[in-house]
Amino acid sequence: MEDFQLRPSGGRLYLRPKTVKPCKTCGEPTGRNYISCKECYNTIENLWLMDWNELIAKKDIISGSEDEKLLAEVIVEEIDKYSWTIVDSAMKIIKCKTCGSELGGGDVDCPDCSFAFENLWAYDMDAMNQGNMTGNEHAIRVGRWVIRYPHRQKRIMVESWKFSMPILITGKLPTTQLAQFLKKVFDEDNFDLSNKIYQNFEEAYLDVVSNTKNKRT
Ligand SMILES: [Zn+2]
Ligand SMILES: [Zn+2]
Fold first, then answer.
1. What is the residue-averaged pLDDT of the chain?
2. Which ligand is nearest to the Cα of residue 40, counting in written order?
3. Residues with beta carbon < 5 A to ion ligand 2?
4. Is residue 94 within 8 Å of residue 103, measured between CB atoms?
5. Which end of the chain has fewer beta carbons closer than 10 Å to its terminal beta carbon, N or C?
6. What three-state secondary structure class fits 22?
7. Higher model confidence: residue 58 or residue 190?
């Protein structure tokens, strides 16, 4: 019999933005410029930080302390016991022993980072099967890994996740067909989706369809 490992949920302390709004700092949909804009960064990252801060407060650990680093080390050795937000947060604190980057975020050819990264995803499968992770939470987790470490991905992949994150953080998720459609738009580069603010993926779809109709026939 397989061991039954209950996967704790994560990311649910954070009060998500309900709508996509232009960022007060960079003017683009909030969350898109995670790497370069503080407000965009916080809008996404606070979802992880709320869980992390709750955990260290419970353990009487101060943020930035050696104890926090030790805790992060314990967590990356026992990732099965913790939620996705806690594991990702710990990996941000730990430096890879091979390349010195945040663990999992180094160059694509660092074997330790690749190993750590690939190890993350069994959790998502289990947690989703157990009802402890939504498809939206899984998408947000993948998206943050892509936009936080863009050097590990193809440019188009990064662009499409930068587009999606402001909508995903409000709780929406595209259907599989819609996601494939939008991926194709990025691949073919025949419509600029970064010009407007869309509240959901359907809006983006309709905009593409109505504005590329003539070109297609
Ligand atoms: Zn911004
Ligand atoms: Zn590495």
1. 95
2. 1
3. 96, 98-99, 106, 110, 112-113
4. yes
5. N
6. strand
7. 58
pLDDT at 215 over 90: no
Give whole-number Cα distances, 90 to 27, 36, 69, 201, 203, in Å. Answer: 31, 22, 8, 31, 36
How many angstroms separate the alpha carbon of residue 26 from the centre of ligand 1?
4
In the block, residue with structure tokens 């289990």: 126
Q: How far is the CA of 91 from the centre of ligand 1 (A)?
A: 24
**pLDDT band at 44; cut points 50, 70, 90:** very high
Q: Is the dihedral of CA 78, 80, 83, 85 positive or negative?
A: positive
| Residue 194: burial class (beta carbons within 10 Å; 0-12, 13-18, 19+) | exposed
For ligand 2, the distance from its centroid to the CA atom of residue 116, given in whole angstroms, is 9
Amino acid code (one letter) for 23: C
Neighbouring residues of 34: CB distance < 8 A, sequence distance ≥ 6? 40, 41, 44, 45, 144, 147, 148, 162, 165
Ligand nearest to the CA of 108: 2
Distance of alpha carbon 147 from alpha carbon 50, whole angstroms: 20
Distance 105 CA to ligand 2 centre (A): 7
Which ligand number lies closest to the CA of residue 166?
Answer: 1
Residue 47 structure tokens: 């979802």
203-208: average pLDDT: 96
| pLDDT tens string 49-90 | 999 999 999 999 999 999 999 999 999 999 999 999 999 999
Which ligand has an atom closest to residue 100 CA?
2
